Amino acid sequence: MKWSGSEEPAIREPALSRGVTRHCTIARPAGAGAEGGDAVIGWLDRFFEIGARGSTLGREVLAGATTWVTLAYIVLVNPIVLGAAGMDTGAVMVATCVGAALATASAGVFARLPVALAPGMGLNFFFAFTLCGTAATGGFGLSWQQALAATFIAGVLFLASSLFKLRSKLMDAVPEPLRHGIVAGIGLMIAVIGLRWAGLLVATPNIYIGPGDLGARPVQVALVGLIVTAILVIRRVPGALLIGAGVSGAASLGFGLTQFTGVVSAPPSILPTFLALDFGGLFAAPTWILAVVMLLIVDMFDTMGTLLGVTSRAGLMEDGQIPRAEAAFASDAGGTMLGGLLGTSTITTYIESAAGIAAGGRTGLTALTTAGLLLCSMFFHPLLSVIGGVPIGEGITLYPVAAPILILIGIFMMPEVAKVPWDRPLAAIPAFFVVVGMPLTTSITNGIGAGFIAWSALHLLSGKGRDVSLVIHALAGLFVLLFLLE
């Protein structure tokens, strides 16, 4: 591709060949060992369709590492959040690493998609402060052992819906304009989260958000990382996102924002939370059904929205459908069940998977790489403090290393918004609520719910209700009920 000096190069991923199968090859020295290595590489290529999807072995591994960098913060944050419910933080850290690694590996092997799974942010707060919160604070008053049981049951129901293909029918019912809105909304939400983590956007008393303090050192580190990473992306440097994270990490250490406390450390025991589920206590609680239903709905729609977003971004959609969708959903459901058994909140598909896709990841090998790094994280958690948060005030933590990656990922996903038929108000208005609903509420589920409600209501009020699937009308009513209960 050529461009004049006054034009900016378009940001594109390697195009996927149509009807042409390419195979990844790596030059190796002759010999028996080389032949064995080539056989392994050949098997990986065929199993994961690496060449057919326009990728290479090295690119997949690099993409997996990039995804890990953007979500490694959960290893540090999740124990802190669930610790507020009285859980042992060391055990939660191990449960987070093991549960995320196994669920991500499952998605890589069975769904063969470049997605990562881990305990969801938001879902862990719901676990700690709503399920385990007191009635005086609007909580359900469950113990953390009972909340783990509710998480496990939600996972079982989620898996059942996957096996009976209920979720596939649900996804097929989603109108195309809303699908484009979901992808764009996720991208905008990722970018807003990145801007907040960088300290470039902050909450203000008089308006919803305002500019951050550019004089703050963490903000400056994030800006340096953003500029460097953006330049690397524009110049098409392989591994740009990962290199940019390295620059931000080095700057964070250099300015003393994070401290080097070592590399390797033995992980704590998982026994305090392992198999600690309390089903008897849960079933005795009057709110247990509502708790399970809310967990199920949030996990289901978060997963649906994330998979639509990342597979569309990767160019992996087949006739408008997610490839091996049932396997992807089953991996998510199995991860939630596993989380309940190990001792962590709902495990769900991560929007940070888009980071690996932006780095060129196209296959399940990306997920396997991320899974391996997640498993190693419980041994290298001292090193993760470099990627972790930098407290700057009461209740305020910035993530200057991961933030630039999220901002750029959001930018990469925004072209999807152009596919919404903005000249058709009946489609454009619901899609708009999806696009803005996600970043404004920091919730994929809330954005999807707003879009479904608007789609159903506008079609009914305009006399076109029969043109809409009964599934969408039913879901719109369900979301109205859910929003009222919240």
TrEMBL record:
Q: Which UniProt keywords apply?
A: Membrane, Transmembrane, Transmembrane helix, Transport
Q: Name one GO molecular function term.
A: purine nucleobase transmembrane transporter activity
Q: Which domain of life is it from?
A: Eukaryota
The UniProt entry's GO CC annotations, sorted and at most eight, read:
endomembrane system; plasma membrane
The signal peptide annotation in the UniProt record is none
Transmembrane in keyword set: yes
Q: Please name the InterPro entries in this protein's record.
A: Azg-like, NCS2
Membrane-related topology note: Multi-pass membrane protein
The UniProt transmembrane annotation reads 61-85, 91-111, 123-142, 148-166, 178-198, 218-234, 241-262, 274-298, 365-384, 396-414, 426-456, 468-485
List locations, semicolon-separated: Endomembrane system
Family classification = Belongs to the nucleobase:cation symporter-2 (NCS2) (TC 2.A.40) family. Azg-like subfamily.
PANTHER family, alphabetized: XANTHINE/URACIL PERMEASE C887.17-RELATED, XANTHINE_URACIL PERMEASE C887.17-RELATED
**What's the protein called, per UniProt?**
Permease MJ0326
What species does this protein belong to?
Geodia barretti
**Which taxonomic lineage does the organism of this UniProt entry have?**
Eukaryota, Metazoa, Porifera, Demospongiae, Heteroscleromorpha
